[in-house]
Every structure is written in C-alpha cells, then in structure tokens.
Amino acid sequence: MDSAMREGPVWMEDGRRLPRSATVDLGSNSVRLVVFEGRGRNPLTIFNEKAVLGLGRGLVTTGRLNEEAVDQALTVMVRYHTVARAMGADPVEVLATAAVRDAENGPAFVAALRERLPDLTIRVLTGQEEALLSADGVLLGFPDADGLLGDIGGGSLELVELAHGRAGRAVSLPLGAIRLSERASGEIQRGRAMATEEFNRVPWLSEATGRDLYLVGGAWRALARMHIAQTAYPLSIVHHYVLSREEARDLSGVVMAATRRTLERMAGAPTKRVQDLPWAAMVMRRLLRASGARRVVFSANGLREGWYARQISSEERQRDPLVAAAQDLAGRFGRDPRLPPALAQWTAGLFERESNAEAALRVAACWISDIGSHDHPDYRAEHAYFRVLRQAGVGLDHHARAFLALTVALRYEAGPEAAYLQAARVLLDVAGVRRAEILGAALRLAYTLSGGTPELLAGTGLEREGGRLVLRLVEGSGVFAGESVLRRVEALAAVLGLESTVELAA
Q1: C-alpha dist (Å) from residue 52 to 299, 391, 434, 488
Q2: Which residue numbers delimit the Ppx/GppA phosphatase N-terminal domain (predicted)?
Q3: Does residue 152 come out as left (phi exceeding 0), alpha (psi in the -120 to 50 range) or beta?
Q4: Do domains 128-305 and 320-505 have the same CATH topology?
Q5: Degrees (nearest 5) of the Cα angle 435, 406, 380?
C-alpha cells in the first residue's frame, strides 16, 4: 500500500488534521470494524461495518474455531485493515475475545492473521481485560454509573461491579449466547440451570440489589430495539434506553416463550440474531434475579468505546459528557464561542430552586442555542431540533436529548403545536416542558437583543423581582427596546407567570 493511502489525511476547515483511530472487535459471533474521528470526550464513529461469521459456533463440541468462518474472517480482516488505513486511522488494533482465546486453533488463527497483516496490532484479551474495557466504555457514557455491568457476546458474559463511576470486581463467565446454546444442547430450561449455577458462584452480584443493571452487547441491544418498536417509543436510540425490572422480565418471558417463526415476525427483531434472542433473554432474566437490580439500562457503549477511551487524555475523559456534547455542536455549527458562557450567566436567575442537573441542562442549552445559524431560515427550528435529538453524544439520556431539542426549537420560534416536537413532549414531564418553554423564550429574547454577540448582551440584564420580570438596558450600549424586544420580553414574562418591565440604566 502506498504512503498516500496509508496516511489518508482528513482536514478541518481551519487546516488542522483530525486524528482517526480504529479497532476491530473479533468476537465469537461477529467481526466489526469501527473507525473513530477525533479525540474528544464523546466518541464520533465515522465508519462501522460488521460481518456475522460465527467464529465460535461449534467451539463447545470441537474445541476449535469454526473452520469455514476462519477463512472468511481472514478475508474480512484484510478488507478491514485496508479500509482503516485508507481512512488514515492510527492506531489500528484488533481485539480478539472469548472464541479466539479459548479455541485450540486460536493461536494458529492469530498467526495466520499476523502473516497476512504483519503491521497490524492484535491483542487476545483475557476475560478480565475484556470486562474492564467494557466497563471503560460504559463509564464513558454513564460517568456516574452505579450497579452492575453485563456484556454478553457469543462466547462469554463479562460482569463488572460499578460503584459511583468506578469499576470494581470483574468476572468472565461462559454464558455467551452461542456457547450457552451449545452447552445446553438447545434446551432453554437446561441453559437456565447453567446460568443460575454460574451466577451462584459470584456472591457479589447480590450487592447490586436496588441499583441499575447496565447491559451491553448486540443480542441485548436487539431486545431493546424490539421493545422500542413494539411500544411505539418516540426515540429509536438504544443508548440510555431504560426498562423497569418488571418490563425487562416481561420482555424476556415473551422472547423465551416464542417460536423462531414468531420471533421473526416481531417488530424490530433482527433476522441474523433471532436464534440467539431467547438465550440472551434468559440470561438477562437470570441476571436480574441474581442481582436484584431495580431496572435495566441499555448501553451502546462497550468494548470498542472502552478501547477508544484509553486513546484520549485523562483530562478529556474527566469532562462532563453533556457539556462536551453541547460544545462539540457549538464548535461545528455556532458563530461565537464567547457567547454561550455569557448566556449561561444571563439566564441564571430565571429559575427558582434550580437543581444541579437542571443547571447543567440550562448551560448545555446555552451552548447549542446558535447551531441553526447557518441553516435556511424557514427550517432552522426543525433542523436544530433533530440535530440535537439525534446527536451522537454518548452522555445524553433521552430526557436530556428531548429537553435540549425542544429548547433550541423554541428558541428558533418553532410553532408550539409543530408535529415534529411531539417526540420531545412525550419524553418530558409537564415540568420539563415548561422549563424548555421558558428557556427557549429567554434565548430568543437574548439573540434579539444581542444579535448573537457577547458585547451587546453585556449591555443588558434580566432579573426576577417579586412578581415582575425586569429587563434592564444600558443606555448607549447599542441595544434598545424596539417592538420585537418588547414582544419577546412579554412572551417570556407570560410563560413565567410574571409582569414584564423594561428599565434603562446609566
């Protein structure tokens, strides 16, 4: 391969080169290449390709990797290596998991891979390493995670104790969907007994009682997608999707009892994973029982994102993912990075008894408040709304997405009854909708006053005084109470339930 292809430079508008990195997750069921762009707090995936090969099928009976899949895997790996290098990724690293580490011919397969691709880094992970990488990935999206992490693959299940954002004890169990099915000879009841026996050997699982169970892995994500489709949930994003303990038990019971034909007809069911779904459902149900977890939280982050987390600086990892995601959007689509901090200060007195979480959302809303500035005026509200609701930020739960999306749409004067706002309104409670309406109106007023510049905003002030909302304008600062300003301060006061007043200050 020539040097131009190997470098594959990518440039930002200001001439800086965005670094790229890539990892291949070489699993028991699938092989997946992911290419990340940048080294930011929220991983940005720009390429994601999966090949379902079933390397680990038959491992229980033969002790060897599936020979047919081995040949396919070698071909796929050459392609993945070529794609990653052509895209300018560096480093590129292969992470081989349960099937390769446990198979008799695993070392031979790795040797054949190294012979074809001598400059490719290949790591055969231990169960402990696999578990802790998954934990790093989950904590990138859930920095305060508290409870138990379960990462199911085709060959193994990794469990990690999570305590207020820190990974603790970890274990790898032979309960992957493919391996468990083969161990149990396809008998789900027999597999349930095996899962129970394995969980009984991990006494610390019960310490998750009343806490959260974070689920990672393609088979479990497939269950989440099925539930989303069947309940007409308004946001088709698995990451941060939550089920109560009872909902998770009901879902697993339905999937376990269904025939293959019935599963294939269920909304959201992935054709290539249908045979694994009952086993994943059963393990989820047994794990709920063993842990006593109060709810299930699905994570799209896992092993690959954990690998990415170790490529970025510790300072970057410590950033608040919500604010980081908002700042990323502002950097790509906004006009002036000096304005959001000024807006955060300007809106600080709007809400009485504001919690830390509410304040963080308000600050994030200030950062994203100008991301429609380059869009067509007739579509700014709608484009900004969907840009926020469906963004790639891993630290945003569905409530945060809905709140920020609704706020920015209202800041751009979206009609309150616009049909596209329905998803956000369904995801928020009455108090959340009202806060979004207040903040959207306040930001609309701020931009009318300032033209999107901190210099003009500095000539204004907004305060609540008793039953009044007072807008103060500094004489000679370039701002004045024109018709649009008066109309918008009145609208903000109305949603706050206050009277509006405009005062001039020397």
Answers
A1: 21, 27, 46, 56
A2: 36-311
A3: beta
A4: no
A5: 135
Q: Which two tokens mark 54?
A: 């079933």
Q: Pick from 286, 197, 299: which is nearest to 249 by CA?
A: 286
How high is the pLDDT of residue 272?
Answer: 79
Is residue 9 over pLDDT 60? no
Determine the Cα–Cα distance for residues 423 and 406; give it in Å rounded to an integer.
9
Question: Does residue 288 or residue 395 have the better pLDDT?
Answer: 288
Per DSSP, the three-state class of 171 is strand
| Residues 427/249/228/217 CA torsion (nearest 10 deg) | 110
What is the Cα–Cα distance from 72 to 50, expressed in whole angstroms?
13
Average pLDDT over residues 43-48: 95
For residues 66-91, give the mean pLDDT.
Answer: 96
**CATH number, domain 128-305:** 3.30.420.150
Q: Which amino acid is at 129?
A: E
Q: What region, left, alpha or beta, does residue 186 occupy, with left being phi > 0 and alpha being psi -120 to 50 degrees?
A: left
The mean of the pLDDT values for the chain is 94
**What percent of the chain stands above pLDDT 90?**
91
Q: What does the pLDDT read at residue 277? A: 96
Does the pLDDT value for residue 262 go beyond 60? yes
Residue whose token pair is 């103060």: 472
Provide the token pair at 282: 């059963």
Give the mean model confidence (pLDDT) for residues 444-456.
Answer: 96
Cα 175 to Cα 173: distance, rounded to the nearest angstrom: 5
Which is it for the CA torsion 479, 480, 483, 489, positive or negative? Answer: positive
- The CATH number corresponding to 3-125 among 3.30.420.40, 2.60.120.280, 3.90.1300.10, 3.40.309.10 equals 3.30.420.40
Report the top-level CATH class of 320-505: mainly alpha
Q: Which two tokens stand for residue 147?
A: 């409870």
Q: For 318-383, give the secondary structure using H, E and C.
A: CCCHHHHHHHHHHHHHCCCCCHHHHHHHHCCCCCCCCCHHHHHHHHHHHHHCCCCCCCCHHHHHHH
Q: What distance in Å separates the CA atoms of residue 164 and residue 104, rounded to the nearest whole number? A: 39
pLDDT at 16: 56
Residue 100 above 60 pLDDT?
yes
Torsion of CA 103, 81, 113, 183, to 10 degrees: 10
CB atoms within 10 A of CB 238: 18
Contact 107, 39 (CB under 8 A): no
pLDDT-derived band at 58 (thresholds 50, 70, 90) equals very high
Where are the chain's structural domains? Answer: 3-125, 128-305, 320-505
Terminal alpha carbon distance of the chain: 69
Which stretch of 175-189, 302-316, 438-452, 470-484 has the lowest confidence by average pLDDT? Answer: 470-484
